[in-house]
Amino acid sequence: MGGRAVRAGAAVALLAAAALVFGCGGGTSNLTAEELVGDDTAVDGDPTTGIEPWGSHTWDDGLALEVGQPEECEPSDNALNADTERAVQFPMALENTTEHPFEFGMTPVVGEATFDGERVEVILDLEGPCHSDEMGFTVIETGETHEFAVSFAVGPEPGLMVFEVSPVLGAERVEMSGRV
Q1: Pick from 5, 110, 147, 155: most CB atoms within 10 A?
Q2: At the top level of CATH, which class does the domain 3-179 belong to?
Q3: In terms of Cα–Cα distance, which of 75, 47, 56, 76 is closest to 158?
Q4: What gap in Å lies between CA 36 and CA 39, rounded to an integer?
Q5: 6-52 pLDDT, tens per residue?
Q6: What is the pTM of this model?
Q7: Which residues make Cβ contacts (< 8 Å) with residue 92, sequence separation at least 6?
Q8: Amino acid 116: pLDDT
Q9: CA–CA gap between residue 51 and residue 44 (Å, rounded)
Q10: Residue 40: CB partners within 8 Å, gap ≥ 6?
Q11: Cβ count within 10 A of residue 143
């Protein structure tokens, strides 16, 4: 099989997985920004004041995810879900401190995502600057860390970004939030 056919097959698999996780259409979150971060954190009407931006979480089994500060990126012409005025990319790192190798990429790490209460999509830019490579299969050995990135199409102005993360299906889903 040629390289183009392999890339096309990988893209189809990635799109199918993303459609299952993120849904096939737009929509809105049922929660307001205030409900997501709590009324007591609002200062001068800004519900994002006082929240811890991004960060890390360690699950009971020993997998630990670190979400770094996002940076704006420009999707390539071939990117999917890239019809946006602004895109942001989050660097992430998954550390395996379990007793067994971890098969990364079997399920997406990021679940539902919203920007200012509106559902947003992951940008699929396989070889472009806004690449989202959370579905690239690799085995993370005990004591190793795997770095990857996830990009989203967001609104033109700064706002509240919220997304769920979980390393495997059925694991506790943790919410990460902050301003982008």
Answers
A1: 110
A2: mainly beta
A3: 47
A4: 9
A5: 333 333 333 333 333 333 333 333 333 343 333 334 434 444 444 44
A6: 0.69
A7: 65, 66, 67, 68, 109, 134, 147, 148, 149, 150
A8: 93
A9: 14
A10: none
A11: 9
* Close Cβ partners of 99 (under 8 Å, ≥ 6 residues apart): 62, 142
Give residue-wise pLDDT tens across range 62-114. 999 999 999 999 999 888 888 888 999 999 899 999 999 998 876 667 888 99
Q: Could you give phi then psi for residue 147, rounded to 5 degrees?
A: -100, 140
Residue type at 146? H
Contacts of 91 (CB under 8 A, 6+ apart): 67, 68, 69, 71, 147, 149
SS (H, E, C) 119-178: ECCECECCCCCCCCCCCCCEEECCCCEEEEEEEEEECCCCCEEEEEECCCCCCCCEEEEE
Long-range pairs for 132-137: beta carbons < 8 A, 24 or more residues apart: 132/89, 134/92, 134/105, 134/108, 134/109, 134/110, 135/13, 135/14, 135/17, 135/18, 135/105, 135/108, 136/104, 136/105, 137/103, 137/104, 137/105, 137/106
Q: Which two tokens stand for residue 95?
A: 């550390």
- Which residue type occupies 82? A
**Cβ count near 173 (within 10 Å):** 11
